[in-house]
Amino acid sequence: MTSIRPAAVAGSFYPSAASELRTLLEDCFQTSPLGPHGATEKNRSIIAGLVPHAGAIYSGPCAAHLFSRLDTSHQRIIILGVNHRGHGQRAALSPWPRWQTPLGEIAVNQHLNDFIRSRADFLADEPRAHSEEHSIEIELPFLQYTLPDFEFVPISLSRLSRDECGEIGAAIAAACQAEANTHTLVLASSDLSHYLSPEQTEVLDRLALEPILALDPEGLLRVIAEQDISMCGVIPTAIMLFAVNAMGAQRARLLNHCHSGDVMPMRKVVGYAAVEIEG
User: Fold this and answer.
1) Which of 41, 64, 86, 259 is the most exposed place for a label (fewest CB within 10 A)?
2) What CA–CA distance (Å, rounded) separates 73 from 273?
3) Which residues contact 39 (CB under 8 A, 6 or more apart)?
């Protein structure tokens, strides 16, 4: 295995040419009717967030609402992604020390990676969970566009119990608090309802967003199960919420909620939200 994880979804989820990718990112941040429209106030107090992970042309303008709020002090990013295919380990860290996008390489923070694994021993460095997955990779160009320098820890997740979510959340909180002088952001990558009418999407998305905004991971797990909501990243989001509660989160704020039909008219849509959490 090489030391660099190559971009797996460049050319499909986002452009493979750096110049085209920068143009698309510029549109997401500056000119899209769903984007944040130019200069946005930075917020050093953000400790976590929720962003979508569909094709950048669809969910990128929504995601840009959170990314545009990040401050240069955000030097370490923990990205909790979905293992959509279910390949490999249920909870997988990166076996590669660097990841690549068309905008360049990004280093995995190995110290942070090892600390989290030491507190949740069912985590393992495992390539199959990451090699073809888009949910983490799609966030990296947005971070590269926003932050001049950062390292990250990617964690691919699927089929975890409530207790396992809590264990990883506690490990992440301990890792963030162990180095208080370094600002760490915990990012949950998730879309909301899938392939429903805009009206159904609005109702079910709001049900899912309510416990997220209340910082209630158990409430989120419960409502997703009871209402059969097709939120793909419920596990990453629950882990993020367990972590921020242990870190003393103060509040969550909905920055944007939209769906794929807002970008291009369609009968069945996918819901997206950008949420910031302050500590």
Assistant:
1) 41
2) 24
3) none
At residue 39, does pLDDT exceed 70?
no
DSSP per-residue codes, 110-152:
HHHHHHHHHHSTT-EE-STTTTT--TTGGGHHHHHHH-SS-EE
- The Cα–Cα gap between 117 and 119 comes to 5
> What CATH code is assigned to 4-278?
3.40.830.10
- The set of residues, in sequence order, having a beta carbon less than 8 Å from that of 232 and lying 6+ positions away, is 82, 84, 135, 190, 191, 194
What are 200-245's pLDDT values in tens digits? 999 999 999 999 999 999 999 999 999 999 999 999 999 999 999 9
pLDDT tens, position by position, 156-196? 999 999 999 999 999 999 999 987 767 899 999 999 999 99
What phi and psi, each to the nearest 5 degrees, are found at residue 278? Answer: -100, 145
- Cα(78)–Cα(115) distance, rounded to whole angstroms? 12
User: What is the pairing mode between strands 4-5 and 98-101?
Assistant: parallel
pLDDT of residue 1 exceeding 90: no
Question: Is residue 274's pLDDT more than 70?
Answer: yes
Q: What are phi and psi of 166, to 5 degrees?
A: -65, -35
Given a contact cutoff of 8 angstroms between Cβ atoms, the answer to whether 208 and 229 are in contact is: yes
Question: Edge to edge, what strands does the sheet with 98-101 contain?
Answer: 4-5, 98-101, 104-107
Element (H, E) at 159: none
Helix (H, G, I), strand (E, B) or coil at 231: coil
Split at pLDDT 50, 70, 90, the class of 38 is low
According to DSSP, residue 260 is labeled G
CA–CA distance, 143 with 71 (Å, rounded to integer): 11
Contact assessment for residue 64 and residue 272, using Cβ atoms and an 8 Å cutoff: no
Indicate the SS3 state at residue 94.
coil
